[in-house]
């Protein structure tokens, strides 16, 4: 089954007596037993719910995993994931990382005795040098947020070799339509389904997809114990959004290529960071390991005033956090997504007042360019 067909039909449930095309919303906290020692397979929605289960099976199928767990947000997924580790464990993490993940690692994980060692995971030697006898996992974001660095997943898996180290990949930016890390050796794939999977900026959701059945069961037990599960209605919205994932990803990427090339020609833009440009350091790697480049662009302006003018004068593009919806959004990482990252760390990562991040949507690309041109002045 092709990827675009799978988004619609991969886990179609033919068991509904009504013939419902859309998965029903089972908005029930608990489920009755037919009799003593009997079960319908569902007991309590914190453990499992038919609508949530449908979304989980869909994600597992699209990512090529043995199972998936659905959570109330991407950060809820990451927080539950970190319960796999014990005090004294070390995790090698991408250094250019979503600010919310950095905040969690630096505050919550550190408090719990789990040490996070940041490294440039786009450089294989840097990953290898960061590994110690205490390393229990490598956490990768690719492309990274916001500098769009790309990690060689198969290369990192080769470095891990036979060592007992989990390879965890955040695949939010590319989605399973463009990229499948498990096929390259990842053990767990993380998604903020709030973004491209749901695709309409109307719900929060997160997923962990596991390569093995044992890990899938472990994560489901953690989800049940912690109570960070996704609600049935939000699971319905995610499943509905995935039906159009293919067409949205293709259109947004088509727009992103045009906009990235246009930005590269503007006098007030000094740098453009987009994986789909041939001069991007990971362009060839991306062509080998993924089926697309996505639609996330970061760019640096010639001054902070230019950046502020763009943000203040947009008429079509929305100045907002988040990404992956049908609407094009522009973000100022310094004051939004990475505002709580310490100054020195932000500067080291290249996040300053001139950097802007663009989540390209599915509007007419001419309208988007006209809006940028007008706002840029």
Provide a descriptive summary of the structure in words.
This protein has about 375 residues and is an alpha/beta fold. It has two domains: about 5-240, Aspartate Aminotransferase, domain 2 (3-Layer(aba) Sandwich); about 245-375, Aspartate Aminotransferase, domain 1 (Alpha-Beta Complex), CATH 3.90.1150. It has 14 helices and twelve strands. It has a seven-stranded mixed β-sheet with strand order 1-7-6-5-4-2-3, with helices on both faces. Helix 6 links the parallel strand 4 and strand 5 (about 165-170). It is globular and about 75 Å long. The model has no long low-confidence stretch (mean pLDDT about 95).
Which CATH class of the largest domain applies here?
Answer: Alpha Beta
Q: Return residue spans where pLDDT drops below 50 for at least 5 consecutive residues.
A: none
Helix content: 25-40%
* Average pLDDT: 96
Strand order of the largest sheet: 1-7-6-5-4-2-3
Fraction in beta strands: 15-25%
Radius of gyration: 21 Å
């Amino acid at each position: 089954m092709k990827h675009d067909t799978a988004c619609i039909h991969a886990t179609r449930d033919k068991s509904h007596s009504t013939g419902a095309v859309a998965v029903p919303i089972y908005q029930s906290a608990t489920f009755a037993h037919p009799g003593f020692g009997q079960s319908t397979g569902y007991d309590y929605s914190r453990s499992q719910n038919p609508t949530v289960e449908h979304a989980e099976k869909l994600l597992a199928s699209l990512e090529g995993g043995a199972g998936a767990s659905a959570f109330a947000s991407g950060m809820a997924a990451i927080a539950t994931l970190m319960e796999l580790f014990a005090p004294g464990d070390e995790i090698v993490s991408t250094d250019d990382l979503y600010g919310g993940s950095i905040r969690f690692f630096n505050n919550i994980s550190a408090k719990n005795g789990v040490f996070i060692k940041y490294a440039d995971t786009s450089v294989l030697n840097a990953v290898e040098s960061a590994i110690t006898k205490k390393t229990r996992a490598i956490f990768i974001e690719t492309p990274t947020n916001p500098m769009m660095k790309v990690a060689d997943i198969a290369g990192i898996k080769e470095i891990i070799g036979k060592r007992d180290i989990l390879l965890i990949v955040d695949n939010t930016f590319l989605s399973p339509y463009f990229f499948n890390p498990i096929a390259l050796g990842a053990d767990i794939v993380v998604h903020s389904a709030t973004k491209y999977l749901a695709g309409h900026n109307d719900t929060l959701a997160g997923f962990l997809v596991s390569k093995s059945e044992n890990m899938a069961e472990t994560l489901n037990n953690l989800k049940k114990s912690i109570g960070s599960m996704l609600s049935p209605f939000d699971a319905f919205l995610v499943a509905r959004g995935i039906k159009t994932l293919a067409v949205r990803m293709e259109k947004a990427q088509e727009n992103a290529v045009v906009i990235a090339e246009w930005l590269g020609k503007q006098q007030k833009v000094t740098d453009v960071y987009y994986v789909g440009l041939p001069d991007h350091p990971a362009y060839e790697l991306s062509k080998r390991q993924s089926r697309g480049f996505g639609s996330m662009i970061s760019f640096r302006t010639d001054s902070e005033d230019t950046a502020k003018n763009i943000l203040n004068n947009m008429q079509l593009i929305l100045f907002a956090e988040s990404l992956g919806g049908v609407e094009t959004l522009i973000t100022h990482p310094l004051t939004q997504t990475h505002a709580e990252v310490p100054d020195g760390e932000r500067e080291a990562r290249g996040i300053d007042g001139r950097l802007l991040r663009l989540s390209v949507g599915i509007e007419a690309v001419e309208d988007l360019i006209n809006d940028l041109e007008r706002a840029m002045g």
